């Protein structure tokens, strides 16, 4: 089970680079979790629910053969990698992670994975 994140107060925020669509655009105060230390993602690209990525993997399995067992392992790996941790992930990080996991497990190109996102 992951941390259920509790943000620090306004006074304790840390100044970190803020990114928008992969570009850095200056510093912005970021709250962080007082329990695990993870910094909250403030990107305007809101992270997606893990269900979205599960559906995307299912869509991919119509093009590439993915066994049920393998699919379950993929979901587990996504969870373990923190793909569903909306506190610290932005959409771009999620997509990167998703592509990494699928590429490692299946013999598919990045392009076909991006095609289902
Ligand atoms: Zn936390």
Characterize this entry briefly.
The protein has helices spanning 50-60, 68-80, 91-105, 110-115; strands at residues 14-20, 23-30. It has 117 residues and is an alpha+beta fold. The longest helix has 15 residues, at 91-105.
Ends: how far apart?
Answer: 26 Å
Proportion of residues in β-strands: 5-15%
The Rg value, from CA coordinates, equals: 16 Å
Shape: elongated
Give start-end ranges of low-pLDDT stretches.
Answer: none
Which molecules are bound in this entry? zinc ion
Mean pLDDT: 90
Instruction: Supply the number of helical segments.
Output: 4
Order of strands, main sheet, comes to 1-2
Q: What share of residues is helical?
A: 25-40%
The helix-strand sequence is EEHHHH
Q: Count all strands and give the number.
A: 2
Which structural class is indicated by helix and strand composition? alpha+beta
Q: Could you say how many structural domains there are in total?
A: 2
How can the largest sheet be summarized?
2 strands, antiparallel
Task: Describe the fold and architecture.
- The chain folds into 2 domains: 42 residues, no CATH class; 73 residues, no CATH class.
- The model has no long low-confidence stretch (mean pLDDT 90).
- It is built from 4 helices and 2 strands.
- The protein has a two-stranded antiparallel ribbon with strand order 1-2.
- It is 38% helix and 13% strand.
- It is elongated and about 50 Å long.
- By secondary structure, it is an alpha+beta fold.
- It binds zinc ion (ZN).
- The site of zinc ion has 6 residues, from loops.
């Amino acid at each position: 089970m992951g941390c259920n994140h509790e943000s620090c107060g306004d006074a304790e925020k840390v100044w970190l680079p803020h990114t928008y669509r992969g570009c850095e655009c200056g510093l912005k105060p970021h709250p962080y979790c007082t329990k695990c230390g993870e910094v909250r993602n403030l990107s305007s690209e809101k992270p997606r629910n893990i269900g979205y990525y599960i559906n995307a993997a299912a869509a991919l399995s119509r093009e590439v053969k993915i066994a049920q067992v393998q699919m379950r392992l993929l979901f587990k790996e996504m969870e373990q990698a923190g793909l569903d941790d909306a506190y610290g992930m932005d959409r771009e990080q999620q997509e990167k992670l998703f592509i990494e996991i699928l590429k490692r497990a299946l013999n598919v190109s990045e392009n076909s994975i991006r095609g289902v996102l």
